[in-house]
Amino acid sequence: MNKKGHLSLALAAGSMAVYTNPSYSLSDWDQTLAALLLAACAGIGGLAPDIDHKTSTASKTIQFSARKRKSFRSASGACFTVGLVLTIVWLAAKLNWVAWDTWLDPLWSPYALTAAAIGPFLLGGGLVFLMLSRLRNLVLIAGGAGLLAAAYLNEWHWIASFAGIAMLLLPLVKHRGIIHTPEFAIALTIGLLSFAGQQPELVQAAITGFIIGWWTHLAGDCFGSEGIHLLIIPKLKLAMHLFSNGSATEKLVIGICTLCITIVWFLLVLGIEPVSLTAENRLQSVPAQTSITATTALNRSDEV
């Protein structure tokens, strides 16, 4: 599935989770905010697994465009080449390996030495351009190292260390690798749910939505030809071959998901509950009504 497919499928799943959960009602502001947060984080979770792809939407948020990265690499190569030559000349002059007066007018010797001294700065500029061209990897490595350090120093929940290790591994793994395996998703789900149990309602809603989005992403990948595979048994792969990226079938799925999202939120705004919840509420009200009737009958008998 492509970006639109994953996003629409995740938002549809998140919206259905909100609609079928009696805890969320648009009549209350806090519940409305939690419902919107759950659906939004489902969309984020639906795109997050593709952070292991260098050109995915998730990766584009932490790196420059392909055209700019190419320009940065070219500038880096030029700075390194010129800077290295000038630095060698500058060091040679400083160590008296080069007799400027023998082949250069003494009037221009100071200017030549000043120009050569720019070499180390060009090397530094080349390093900066190289870092900008590899910004995604730097952000992931720095973020992972920071999470690990913070989790260790502050004794955070183990899911922080898990996320830190995953971020450190991302520059090394291929697309649809460990990040797209059910084992990774199970570990992530257990960790996030364990962490969410200690958090306020809004954080719980956000984490729930993210988990829903992550699993719908894996489910969406199963529809295509590449599918997903197990980490323990890599050769065991689930791929339904129902459609390819950008095909008419995928566009139909996107349309169905969009229609589902629209209908669900329309029903939520109108306050129309699912049939199953309405029937459950009626069943729960029967014992209460029976108890009230019995109490009234006893009171009347006592009066008589």
N-to-C CA distance: 74 Å
Spans of 5+ residues with little confidence (pLDDT < 50)?
Answer: 288-298
User: Which descriptor suits the 3D outline?
Assistant: elongated
- Percentage of helical residues? over 70%
Architecture overview:
By secondary structure, the protein is mainly alpha-helical. The chain has 13 helices and two strands, in the order αααααααααααββαα. The protein has helices at 3-19, 29-47, 57-60, 66-94, 100-103, 109-116, 119-133, 135-154, 158-169, 182-196, 201-223, 248-270, 275-303; strands at residues 228-229, 237-238. The protein has a two-stranded antiparallel sheet with strand order 1-2. Strand 1 (228-229) and strand 2 form a beta hairpin. Helix 4 runs antiparallel to helix 7 (119-133) and helix 8 (135-154) runs antiparallel to helix 9 (158-169). Mean pLDDT is 84; it is low at 288-298.
Layout: helices, strands, pairs:
Layout: H1 3-19, H2 29-47, H3 57-60, H4 66-94, H5 100-103, H6 109-116, H7 119-133, H8 135-154, H9 158-169, H10 182-196, H11 201-223, E1 228-229, E2 237-238, H12 248-270, H13 275-303
Helix pairs in contact: 1-2, 1-11, 1-12, 2-11, 4-6, 4-7, 8-9, 9-10, 10-11
Descriptive key words:
13 helices, 304 residues
Short structural description:
This protein is mainly alpha-helical and 304 residues long. It has helices at 3-19, 29-47, 57-60, 66-94, 100-103, 109-116, 119-133, 135-154, 158-169, 182-196, 201-223, 248-270, 275-303, and strands spanning 228-229, 237-238. The protein has 13 helices and 2 strands; from the N terminus they run αααααααααααββαα.
